[in-house]
Design goal:
This protein is an alpha/beta fold. It is 47% helix and 14% strand. It has a single domain, classed as 2-enoyl-CoA Hydratase, Chain A, domain 1 (Alpha-Beta Complex). The radius of gyration is 20 Å and the shape is globular. It starts with 24 loop residues before the first helix and ends with a helix.
Length: 314
Amino acid sequence: MDQSNLGATQGPLLSADHPDLRLDEAEIATISRFAASPLFDLGQLDVRWDEERRTLWTYMTPNGRPSFNLSMLRDFDMWQSEIARLFGPDRELHYLVLGSRFPGVWNFGGDLNLFAKYIRAGDRQSLVDYGRRCVNILHQNMHRLGLPAVTIGLVQGQALGGGFEALLSFNVLIAERSAKFGLPEIAFGLFPGMGAHAFLARRLGFAKAEEMILGGRTYSAEEIAALGLVHQLVDDGEGEAAVRDYIRLNGRRHAGNSAVYAASNEVLPVPIEELNRIVDIWADTALKLQEKDLRLMERLVSAQSKLSAKIGPS
């Protein structure tokens, strides 16, 4: 039986109107466990549970410009806490997938309008709070919420700034060919302060990490795949099928794959304290920006907002 929309189901599926439906005790327990959870009723995250594949599919559904606004961060906090609560050794989650429903955009990253507001107000604490909230979410994702799962980033469209940083916390990236990646912050005198430096330096070395951060250019999916950051590159429109194929082909090796990613975190750990210190440097740098830098930042927001309005959410 297809359980892919189980999260949206209201109440048990057994009834006199559907005598052909016969759920076993485990399936009934799954429905009961999920029924009262807010995991499937988040404002900017569309979540579905695939019982057969033991996979939690999640898609960002942003309000307005596809960025990590405060409301979306609250949704991610709830998302992670509920996943950790609902799953465990006896309720095994094998795969955690994150994509985007916004056509042509995975995520533009930080809420630049909010940053400009905090900077003009000299509000360092709010900048630090925002940054630490982001790196905590990424750090938990990097450690798979303490679960024996494999995390998969499904990239369809542009992943810029914090969007690219977020993807670096996943075990596996599957991207469509039209996807774009970049860290544009240096254009307005800032740098990506929520994980990029730490993740890229460990994976590519310090020289390449600094080149990407200081260069500020946009990379094609082919270029990112050549660097080894994208694990599978597929034609446009084939992303979801590629994720399902990956899960099918790796199902028997799931325990081993999960263990390798857990070991990788031990070999090259990224401590939360390190990420928090980088956030502090980022916040102090942000407060040094001049008005001309903020206007450039806002022009980038305006361009992205016009693109968002043009293509619109699906």
